[in-house]
Amino acid sequence: MATSEAVLQVLGGSLPSLFGSDNSFRKLGSSHTSRSFIRIRKKRGSKCVNFLNCSNISYRAIRVDCFQSIRQSVHGDITHSYLRSVNCKCQQADSASSFASEKGNGSWISDNDQSFDTVLGNTPSVMQFETVRELKVGEEDFQSNGSLRPNVSAEDTLNRIAGNSIEDEAWELLRESMVYYCGSPVGTIAAKDPTSSTADVLNYDQVFIRDFIPSGIAFLLKGEYEIVRNFILHTLQLQSWEKTMDCHSPGQGLMPASFKVRTVPLDGDDSATEEVLDPDFGEAAIGRVAPVDSGLWWIILLRAYGKSSGDLSVQERIDVQTGIKMILRLCLADGFDMFPTLLVTDGSCMIDRRMGIHGHPLEIQALFHSALLCAREMLTPEDGSADLIRALNNRLVALSFHIREYYWIDMKKLNEIYRYQTEEYSYDAVNKFNIYPDQISPWLVDWMPSKGGYLIGNLQPAHMDFRFFSLGNLWSIVCSLTTDDQSHAILDLIEAKWTDLVADMPFKICYPALEGQEWKIITGCDPKNTPWSYHNGGAWPTLLWQVTFICRS
To answer: What is the model's pTM?
Structure first.
């Protein structure tokens, strides 16, 4: 619960204010040097708090008699590791100044931790924060006489303590995946699998724009702004790089899909080396597809950084303002399309392999709407931006109407489609996209609940993709692309179809999976996207933070 509330703070406190001009955002707490943290973490021998380098430690025993009967069956020896309180004053780390917050303790700390400085007597380090939190988790369930409080079971207490252990382990893994450029953190690699060989890595050892978003949000919640700021500015520099494929260059403003830090010999001196950023704009990607979503995610993260850190100087920089405008001009450029939605090829977003989403996929439209709202709040008012802002506002109105009106499907809309007349040539046609009722899949009739609905995956002339795409629906709620009634209906559907969408391994990226002849034709017999794998109905736990966010909103 604390995590979801913190996400709400990072993204503005409420859904509309994520992109609004609300200046009452809360500032996060202290930041620190990531490498120092990693160095200290690696020195510890276990998950318990006695790894701290303390000048004065006193242990006070806690009665654990009531845990004896369940200790082995629940969490083994976890009682011995955690059910101790520590009262210590830690020695200063070598980089103590890097642990201190320039803005003091932020309001992101929960009420139970407001006595932080009182407990430790100084500005807390990350290590001290973990100590206090573990101490509180272990003590708050006990009465003064050492017995458990009423209505608090021993198993619940152990589960909560174990939860902190899992969170610590997750942070340790995340920090091990950090990438450094010239000594500064610039992102996290896409995947870190210690069992994989170098030959099997492909491009998973690179920093992907879209994959860094959940990592960036996590760092913002921790108050570690440096890595997010560096990521934003370094990827912006890559935007201006020359990018060609077979003598053809895409439009200006395209952001890379990923980048890698490489060490190369210094010009004129073979004995010296330097680090360089090597971006991939799709010319080396599998399938050679340009990443349409990268620029949209970049704008969204830039807005989240400003709101959470309070540092608006980054978005006000001339180069950053230019980068925003280049992305907007690329997305708002005139074309042949009659619809306000973005027309893209297959594999141009999170689903970056052939999955039949070419055209106007929902995920891209939701991110597009979100980026337009963020950009409108960040663009500085000047004569050169007037036309761009006007086009942006017009597109927002048309896009939101189009998605809410034509992408929405529920039992009522399904019955309307069954009664559609086809081949209507008229300005007043009801079946504007000439959808044939026979294309409604049998699974949809059985799957659609009486209460609830969702946004379909794609819409083109004579084609509606009725698959449920999770990211598109979830992010449509986050950025208020859906109406309030539609947002609640999507949540109702997720609840009603929890077994199909969540089950034992959350969260399905889409439902249902392509199978049989349909899989062969649409994916091209892709061995990675076999039914219920990867992009074809596979489970993606990274979607859970968005589920949590919209449920708490």
So the answer is: 0.74
For residues 100, 102, 104, 108, the Cα torsion angle rounded to the nearest 10 degrees is -90
Flag whether 436 is in a domain: no
Q: For residue 54, is it within any domain?
A: no
Q: Is 260 among the domain residues?
A: yes
Domain interval for residue 241? 165-289
Report the percent of the chain where pLDDT is more than 90. Answer: 54
Judge whether 232 and 301 are in contact, CB under 8 Å.
Answer: yes
State the distance between the two ends of the chain, measured CA to CA, in whole angstroms. 12
Token pair recorded at residue 193: 């699998």
Instruction: Dig out the tokens for 54 from the structure.
Output: 């303390």
Are 543 and 470 spatial neighbours (Cβ–Cβ below 8 Å)?
yes
Q: Which residue has the tokens 């598109």?
A: 472
| Cα–Cα distances in angstroms (integers) from residue 131 to residues 28, 99, 102, 119, in the given order | 19, 15, 22, 11
Instruction: Yes or no: say if 311 and 229 are a contact pair by the CB < 8 Å rule.
Output: yes
Question: What type of residue sits at position 187?
Answer: G
Inter-CA distances, 240 with 256, 267, 281, Å:
10, 22, 11
* Rounded CA separation 220/299 (Å): 15
Q: Answer yes or no: is pLDDT of 527 > 60.
A: yes
Between residues 103 and 18, which one has the greater pLDDT? Answer: 18
d(CA 365, CA 271): 50
Domain total of the chain: 1
Task: Output the DSSP codes for 137-182.
Answer: HHHTTB-TTSSBPTT--HHHHHHHHHHHHHHHHHHHHHHHTEEEET
Of 308, 224, 218, the closest CA to residue 17 belongs to 308
**HEC profile for 93-138?**
CCCHHHHCCCCCCCCCCCHHHCCHHHHHCCCCCHHHHHHHHHHHHH
**Position 211 in a domain:** yes
Q: Which 3 state secondary structure label does DSSP give 416?
A: helix
- How far apart CA 508 and CA 468 sit, in angstroms, is 9
Choose among 248, 333, 247: nearest CA to 292: 333
Which residues are CB-contacts of 244 (< 8 A; sequence separation ≥ 6)?
283
**Dist CA 179 CA 175 (whole Å):** 9
